[in-house]
Every structure is written in structure tokens, then in C-alpha cells.
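Hi team,

Filling in the usual template for the complex we talked about on Friday. All components are listed, including any nucleic acid strands or ligand strings, so the model treats them as one assembly.

SUBMITTER: L.P.
PURPOSE: interface mapping
COMPONENTS: two
RESIDUES: 843
SEQUENCES:
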Amino acid sequence: MSRTMTVAAKTASPAGAAPTAKEGGRSALGWVLHNVVWIWLIALVVIFGLFNQFFFTVNNMQNIMVQATVLGMLGLAVALPLLVAEIDLSLPANLGFSSAIGAMAYSDWGLPWFPGMLVGVGVATFIGFFNGLCITKLRMVSLIQTLSMMIILQGALLALTQGRTITNLSDGYVWIGQATIGGWPIMPFIFVIALVGVGILLSNTVFGRRVYAVGGNPVASNSAGIRVDRVKILTYTLAGFLAGCAGFLLASWQMAITSNQGSSYLLYAIAAPIIGGVSVFGGRGNVVGVLGGVLLLTVIQVGLAIISVPSFYVGIIGGFMIFIAVAIDAIRVRYFS
Amino acid sequence: MTVPMTAGSQAADDYVLRVENLGKVYGGAVALRDVSLAIRRGSIHGLLGENGAGKSTLVGIMSGQRQPTTGTIYLDGVALGHADVPSMEEAGVFLVTQEPMIIDHLSAAENLMLGIWPRRFGFVNWRKLRKDAARMLAGTGIDLDRPAGKLDAVARRKLNILRAMFSGGKVIILDEPTAALTVEDRQQLFDFMRRLKADGVTFIFISHYNDEILDICDAVSVLRDGILAGGSEDVGSLTSAQLSELVLGRGLVLFQRERREFAEDAPAVQLRDVVGPSVRVPALDIRPGEVVGFTGLPGAGAKELARCIFGLTPVQSGTIRFADETETHKLPTHPRDAFESGIAFLSDDRRRDGAIGQMSIGANISLSSLASVARSGFLSKDAELKLSDRYFAAMGIKAPSAAVAVDTLSGGNQQKVCLGRVLATGPRVLILDEPTRGIDVGVKQDVLRIVDELSRTGVAVIIVSTDTDEITRAVDRVCIFENGAIARELTGSEITNDRLRGLEPS
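RESULT (copied from the run log):
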């Protein structure tokens, strides 16, 4: 805003004061629209709380934060390819498949749970790396390549589990999903660590700067001396790693791996970063936005359950709430950028 | 200001298009203030001005793309109320933008008839379309079945102009139609415009080049900072210096480099056996502090060689050796390697291949030298700020601060940001591809001056340009490319505008 203000000051016209006041109103509106996700989030918390006092309890807040953890890790993972103007649809399927591999490494191959878990996260990371190779070196279209990878991984998970749910997870494996410190669950701390880590990576490192540059204009980035393919492969690899961690956390929390583990997260994991301001055209967005998107979606889900909306209506009401957030954001982009 | 004001009282019929007291305010910024001018029927009317002077806003209003805040447009003497693009096109006013609106995979004929397909029973009548298109394209040398993507730049521009005409265009506004054209192409385009003018078409012609305005226009209007700075209905009475003064509002000193002879110096860089796609250069030496011009027709090898040296185009063979090194290296295979070995390159296509528009000026400046402002991968904000502020100031970029996003800047300032970025890498060899294309005459002098000063510190500079005037002013030596090879070199006083123009094969 400061830029338009100075311009307005320079062209001091006889009616100089009037446009300045108007500018002020405009900037206030701009601020509201800019932070619409957070304002909408607070509004929904208040509304849900008015319907049911239980919503404001510490217990429920903890529940929301635990619920937000897996979606948050996955949302961060999805945001990374989006920032370089690509997409990875296979991440939720990667989450399910890799956690099953990790569990089987423990139950079938006799590895202790911790190395088994590392195998699972490693597999997820490698799948991310492989996706990156396909879309850069083979020039496959990321939308279709990762769609096919998603179908492959969903099928592989079904084949691995033979349609059954894996429940023989060791106590060590499920510990992190259940443990609490002073009554507070540990899971959200992992999300916070991931959030801060990715945040620092994006805003304080050379790699992060390159991610934004590649997403903003890949051709210009190449000419500016950025190895665009390498940056893209790294973002996909990191996304795979985060999905693997999310897979471990989800299995540990649920103490089970179903034959379609993770699939239900697909649309929410893509919606969360986009609601939070990550551009599907690349180069725009940050982790704070992702956090906002994740919390908004989680609050909607939990809130609708708590105020006992009949399950037949949860989908349509939740959908509308997301729609409103995205529509307001679109208005912001249209009038304020 | 003086000339058009009398137009209102005279026979309105003389003027096909007239605007009175036009004003346009964006947010708080005044883009256009109280502009009145009149376009004589069947004339070519030049529109001159620096980047951001309001030319695009003015023609945007004239063509109905933007709505004026104040003022009136008269077409054939009739005041128009609300004017949008369809109604202006209906009335015969067409804007032909810098980027030809052409669909590459459709044929020339289809592009010509885009949106105005001759129809029969609701289906496109292909036979009539081809017949009409063939008639329109007769004598233009454009093959009507050729995919538009395979046409050269002039043919594409012509196609765009023809389409405007064919849709009933009486007034055709050309926004910098000569950018990226060679002297040859330019003349061809001008001949074409003169032919259409003889048929009664009126043109409004936006250009950065005085010689073009003087060459083809009947009348001229000059905009400066959103106001009409002056103009003339008789261009013949104006000199190039007078035009420049109107554009800038002060006497402009055109940059002229003091040429030096470098023959005895040890070369700063030696290129050997460069063979790449459509380029073959056995040997080229450049001395420290020398500015070498690469020129020639498009595709002749000047641009191609530059891109090979920087690693943007893969080569079959080619080595480079710097003065202070004993061993020769293969040419870089990626711009990253090029920057690291001290070769910097500025692309000719700012939009596609220049700055990252949504990033700040500062982030763009440091983008190619991030390693130098980081420790083990973590950016040092202080070091980065120091680097970006230094080049932000040195380039004279007109912006409130280096934190402003680049896509809010004018073309000339964006070019300065890009130049700042490549200079921040501290190059030994600087390659500039059309460094002043599409930027106004004032910024152009700034850019050439910066390059001149840099060369005095011992940097070897290559300027790729088809602008012969720029070449004569900025370089010590010219390499003229033909068929992928250096056909001739000119040095010192041999470098004259006429000689360079004459050397273009006709």
C-alpha cells in the first residue's frame, strides 16, 4: 500500500485529501481480504462455539490440532510442487503406500519398528524423487504423471494389504500418535517443527529463493543460472519425504493402516495450500498461509461433527464454507494485485 | 497542444478521430491529463514518448480497451458516449498490439479470418475463406496455407494489420510494430503501410525511434508524463533532436563511446572452434575492456553465438580460454557454469526470459549471485540487501524502493533490473542481447553509459544488436554475421551507420 500512497502524494491535486482518505478505506478493505482465511477461521470458531460450548474446550482444541497434523504435513508436501508451478497428486496415495511398507518391514521382514519406519519414509522420499525425475528429465506432464502414480500406489496398497487392515503395529510405532506431554499430545509439535523447517527453508535459504524464482518464471530462472530441473526434483523429493512422515503419523495415530489409507485426504490436501494463498501457477505462497488453510479445513470438519450436523449434510455445508473462502480470495486477487 | 485545439471549429470531416481533454487516473496515479489531439483522415500519425508517458493508456482509450476518467472521443466528428472494444471495432478503430494476436498452428488464411469466418448454414465456408484470404494476401508475399507460427516477424505483423483492415478497419493503431524487426523488414512494413494509406486507411503509429517517425509519419504528437508535450502536423519541419527534446523535456545528449584500438593487447578471452546449431566460428578474441558488436540478419549467427557462449544453446564443439588461465575450457553447458566462470548474459526477451515479475527488485538483482550472499545455503539478509541496494542505486532504477515487485515497473526499468542482476555476478565477459530493445531513448543512453563504464574496468563486452545506430555509438569493433559465420569485421572509424546499413543484403 505504501507505494500507491507515495504516488498519490506526488500527484498532489487540488482534491488531494479525498483520494488519500479513499486510499485508506481501500487499504483497510485490502487488509481484510488479505487475511480472509484467518478472519473466516476465527469467525467459524466463534460460530461453532455458539452452537456448542464444547467447541471451546481444551480437549476439543487438542483434538483439532491432532487432526490438523496429518493434513498439515500433507498440505506442506502439496504446497512444494505447487510453488514451482507443478503438482503432485500422488502424495496422499504415497502416504498410504509408504506407511504400509514401513509397517510390513516391521511385521513381515522382522526389522525393529524404527528402521522399519525409516524404510517407509525412505520409500516415500524415493517415490517423490522418481516423480521429479519423470517430470523434468522425461518432460512428463506433472498432472498426468502423478495421477498415474496415484493410481499405481493406491493399487499397490490394495495388493499389499489384500484389502485387509494392518493392525499389528508395535507399541513403539504407535507411541508418537498417542503420547502426551503434560496432557498435550505430541503430534502437533511434529507439525509445528515441519512448518517452521519448511518456512525457514523457503524464506531463508538459497534453495527457497530458487523455488520461488522457478515457480515465477522457469525460463528466466534458467537464464539466471538456476538449474531448474534440479530445483524441481528436490521439491518433489522433499514433498515425498513429508508425505512419508505424514504416513507414519497417521498410522501411528490411528494404530491401523487401511487398504485405502490416505485416499480421503487427496482433495483436502490440495485445497488447504490453495485456500492459504499458494498459487497453482507457481511462485506465490508461504507456510503461514498453508497453516491457515489447514486449520480452516480442520475446524470446518470438526465443527460440523461437534454441532451434530446430520452426516448427510456435512459434505454440502463444508463444501460451501470452502467455496466462500476461495471466492473471497479470488476477489482479493482480482482487485488488489 | 496548439494544433489540435483549432480542429474542433474546422471541418470535422478532415479528422477521422479526435479526443478532447482526455484524462485517466489509476488508483491515485494520473496516467493521462487533459490530452486533446486530432488524427487527420488518411494520414500516418506518430505517437512518441518515454516508457510510462501515457502512450499505451491513450491508445487503450482510443481503441475502447480502457475507459477515460474524463474527456470525450469523437469519431468522424460525432461524440462517442461509452466506447468499448466491440463498438470501436464496429466503428473501424483497431489496436494492433506489440504481441501479434496470432494463433501459431492455424494457417495464415485462418488467422486472417479469425472470428469473421464466412459462414454458410452456420458452418464455416472454407472455400470462400480461402478465396477472400488469397485476395487479401495477394502481393504481400505471404503463403495463405502456411501455419502462422512458421511466418517471420514481418509477415506476422502484416497479417495482424491485414486482419484489422479486413474487419473494416479505418483507423489502425500500431503499438511499436517495428520492435524486433531488421532495417530491411522495417522498410518492407513501411512500404506496406504507405500502400494502405493510399487506399485511405489512417494509422496511429507508436515508436521509440525518431528516424522511423521522421521517415513515415505525416503528423506527430509527443506525450510526456501523461500530458501532450507537443506535436506537429508537418513532421518534415522537425529534426530528430527536436523530437528527442520534446520526448524528454530537455536537450538529450546521445551517448557516443570513445573508441579505442585494442589490436596489441593480450586477449581477455579466446574462443576457438565454436560449432553449434547454425553457427560456426573458428576463432574470436576479445581484449579486456573492448566492446564488440555482433550484428547481422536474424538467424545469421550473431544471437546464436552469444547463446552458445553462455551455455543456453548446446554446442557440438567449442572452447574458451581466459587471459589469466593457462588451460582452455569447454564452453559452459548451463548458465550456472557460465556465471561461475565469469560469463554473464542478458537476454533480449524481457517478458519471457528476463526478470521474475512477481519477485522484488532486490530479489531479482541477487538471483544470479545468491551463493555470494549466503553461508552454507542460508541467505544473509544483510549481505543480500547490500548487494541489491548497491545495484539498485547504480542502475538508477526508478522505483520507491528495491522491495517493489518488478512487474510494476516499466519496460526500461525492468531492463535495468536485469542488467543489475547480471552485473552483480561480477562478470569478466558480459554479453548483452539487444540490451535497449523496446526501451525509451533516455533509458537507452543510461544503459549504454553503464556498459561503457563497466568496460573501462577491463570487462570484455559483447553487444548483440540489429540496431545499427546503437552499434555505431556503443562499440569498438563490429562482427557482421552471415550464414552462421563472421563474414566481416569493422573497427574504429570504419564503423558508420551507413556502412552497417549498406551491408545488409537487399
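MY TAKE: The longest strand of chain B covers residues 15-26. Chain B has a mean pLDDT of 85.

Thanks, L.
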